[in-house]
């Protein structure tokens, strides 16, 4: 198996510290040796390699930025590099790590009680527990404010009723961070922890999907689920708390999409150099060179966006609109790059023997979840005009 090459036209990796480059090399080597040899099988069979979770935990990939509770205590830029290298392998692999860090451990660490933190964060960091994040519903995707899931106070407990959809890790999760409208639907949105096995709570895998196949995607069902009042995340108040989690996830996606694009470009470039048509390598033709030059330019722009965004986040200067711009641009351009790579490969491009078709299908989801291109466009538009076009 050919090793990943350095696709770094503007020497962006020089902007990383030696420590950050060391993290990059370790994760890259692990993806190459442990994930890629079976990546096509995972995708084709629609399975996620749970046997690799202990190895990811051993590398400190869960709780990567936490300085306590068994976390690794690394910075945002290093986490971005991790996401990029994981998604060079597969979007499903990066999604698992993103959910664990940004959508499960982050809200418990940020909004949870001391008891919740002490109980769950060490388990999650060690890989001895898996989590999921329940916000999206069958009729509430881009507009989470319209969710129908409710939580009603009943003495010393809450009763939750509703449905959640497109939930990564849903059926394999030991703990779910679920968002619901309180007071029977008339109150603010709050976050709750629901343990696997709680009566009335179930998860069902979504089958027949052609994207993120190497990822567990589920529907959550809450039929009169009674949980103790202490399962409420005390620091989570309103939809803004849930969106704060999504902001963390979008940051990782912005970096991850670049990894998928890099994998597609590298495959297309190597193929074009070696494939001969009309007595000449494909790479010698002007139209192919134009495509390769465009792909590399967009990857370089995305790399620069990510590197600067990572430093802004490390300095506490990153705004949610900065993250929206990077997610919007990088996911959208990565999808176009994957399609172009598949085109350069011709008929071979539809075979799982080459990664572009797998990345292309995955990126259809990456371009959609955690905010579509349209939603992020409007977020940025509102920021630069001061006018809200959502309502």
Produce a short descriptive summary.
The protein has 391 residues and is an alpha+beta fold.
Structure commentary:
This protein is an alpha+beta fold. The protein has three domains: 114 residues, Butyryl-Coa Dehydrogenase, subunit A, domain 1 (Orthogonal Bundle), CATH 1.10.540.10; 101 residues, Butyryl-CoA Dehydrogenase, subunit A, domain 2; 147 residues, Butyryl-CoA Dehydrogenase, subunit A, domain 3 (Up-down Bundle). 49% of the residues lie in helices and 15% in strands. The chain is built from eleven helices and nine strands. Strands 1, 2, 3, 4, 5, 6 and 7 form a seven-stranded mixed sheet that branches. A two-stranded antiparallel sheet has the order 8-9. β4 and β5 form a beta hairpin. α1 runs parallel beside α4. The chain is globular, with a radius of gyration of 21 Å. The mean pLDDT is 96.
Which fold name is given in CATH as the topology of the largest domain? Answer: Butyryl-CoA Dehydrogenase, subunit A, domain 3
Write the H/E string, N to C: HHHHHHEEEEEEEHEEHHHH
Identify the CATH homologous superfamily of the largest domain: Butyryl-CoA Dehydrogenase, subunit A, domain 3
User: Which radius of gyration do the C-alpha atoms yield?
Assistant: 21 Å
| Overall 3D form | globular
**Corresponding CATH architecture of the largest domain:** Up-down Bundle
How many domains? The number is: 3
First-residue to last-residue Cα separation: 51 Å
Biggest beta sheet summary: 7 strands, mixed
Poorly predicted segments: none
**What's the number of extended β-strand segments?**
9
Decide which structural class fits the backbone.
Answer: alpha+beta
Q: Strand percentage, roughly? A: 5-15%
Kindly provide the name of the CATH class of the largest domain.
Answer: Mainly Alpha
Overall mean pLDDT stands at 96
Please work out how many helical segments DSSP would assign.
11
């Amino acid at each position: 198996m050919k090793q990943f090459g350095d696709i770094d036209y503007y020497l962006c990796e020089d902007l990383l510290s030696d420590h950050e480059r060391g993290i990059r090399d370790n994760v890259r080597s692990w993806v190459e040796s442990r994930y890629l040899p079976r990546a096509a099988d995972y995708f084709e069979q629609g399975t996620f390699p749970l046997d690799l979770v202990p190895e990811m935990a051993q590398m400190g990939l869960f709780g990567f930025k936490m300085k306590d509770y068994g976390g690794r205590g690394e910075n945002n830029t290093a986490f971005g590099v991790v996401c990029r290298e994981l998604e060079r392998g597969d979007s499903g692999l990066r999604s698992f790590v993103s959910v664990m860090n940004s959508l499960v451990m982050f809200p418990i660490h940020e909004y949870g009680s001391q008891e919740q933190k002490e109980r769950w964060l060490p388990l999650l960091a060690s890989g001895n527990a898996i989590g999921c994040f329940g916000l999206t519903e069958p009729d509430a995707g881009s507009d989470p404010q319209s969710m129908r899931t409710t939580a009603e106070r009943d003495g010393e407990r809450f009763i939750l009723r509703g449905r959640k959809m497109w939930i990564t890790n849903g059926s394999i999760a030991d703990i779910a961070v679920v968002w619901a409208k309180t007071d029977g639907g008339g109150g603010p949105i709050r976050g709750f922890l629901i343990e696997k096995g709680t009566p009335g709570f179930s998860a069902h895998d979504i089958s027949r999907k052609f994207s993120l196949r190497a990822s567990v995607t589920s529907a959550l069902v809450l039929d009169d689920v009674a949980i103790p009042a202490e399962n409420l995340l005390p620091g989570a108040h309103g939809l803004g708390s849930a969106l704060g989690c999504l902001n963390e996830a979008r940051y990782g996606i912005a970096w991850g999409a670049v990894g998928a694009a890099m994998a597609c470009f590298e495959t297309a470039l190597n193929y074009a150099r070696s494939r001969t048509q009309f007595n000449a390598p494909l790479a010698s033709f002007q139209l192919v060179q134009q495509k390769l030059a465009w792909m590399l330019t967009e990857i370089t722009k995305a790399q620069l966006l990510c590197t600067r965004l990572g430093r802004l986040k490390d300095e506490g200067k990153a705004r949610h609109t900065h993250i929206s711009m990077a997610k919007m641009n990088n996911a959208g351009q990565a999808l176009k790059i994957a399609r172009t790579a598949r085109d350069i490969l011709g008929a071979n491009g539809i075979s799982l023997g080459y990664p572009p078709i797998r990345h292309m299908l995955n990126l259809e989801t990456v371009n959609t979840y955690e905010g579509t291109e349209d939603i992020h466009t409007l977020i940025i538009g509102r920021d630069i005009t001061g006018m809200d076009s959502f309502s």
